[in-house]
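[job 4471] stage=fold_predict status=RUNNING
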Amino acid sequence: MDLRRFITLKTVVEEGSFLRASQKLCCTQSTVTFHIQQLEREFSLQLFEKIGRRMCLTAEGKKLMPHIHDLTRVMESIREAARQDSQPSGELRIATGETLLAYKMPQVLQRFKQRAPNVQLSLQSLNCYVIRDALLNDDVDLGIFYRVGNDDALEMKPLGEQSLVLVASPLLQDVDFTQEGRHIACSFIINEPQCIFRQLFEGILRQRRITLQNTIELWSIESIKQCVAANLGVSFLPRFTVERELRSGELRELPFDTTPSIMALCAHHAGKAVSPAMQIFMECVEACFSTENKKMPG
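[job 4471] inference complete, writing structure tokens
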């Protein structure tokens, strides 16, 4: 089995034609055609069909592609591991939650850039449930997010408990979230329904039989904080995202009779080979979070 043929197949799919694939691989178009024909003979199936002027993958060809991508990534990991004396290179795919990206990751990215300047970093801000699924599907290499359940298929490194706090404008008066069975005439300002700290807060309100006037959904943590500071409602956020506003007096903490927390994690698929770039990134994450945790009171 010649691995070059799989690389040729992947390149044809990515480039959209045999000609462009041959140009990228620095070979003749006849060589590309030969590699594809050899694969079709080996697997006894047709990989491409001509639709109009385009060569498109057949249904059988599409079924092979996830495995081809896995194979080429493994080969790249082997090459990386063999380059013991060289800087890590290639692409590293990272997904992280928005609050972690905005408040925790800049230091991590700065440190990683210094240690692995040749790595092409792909960074996405995603919901924690989406990150977990992306890791399971090998759509990303590493996820930095909050625990959303135990999963044996993931290798998870805890980064510390992150406390949550109920915040409001100093102008908001006569609200009490500690008494059960009441309606509070203010808005809850938060992001999408699958937000882990939104789910925690709404679960506590249900237990206490507390209802609010309405929920305002915003996608930006900074927008949420500005709306809360403008006395448009309350929010429930990781404490590290509002520390500056609490110190300055722009926001105040409301009594809640409980101090729930969420666990931050760095995770990858348990069956995935850890590349040098992944290892360096995980070391940078652990170092930065360790420093931050030491700064936290208590």
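[job 4471] summary: The first strand starts at residue 48 and ends at 51.
[job 4471] exit 0
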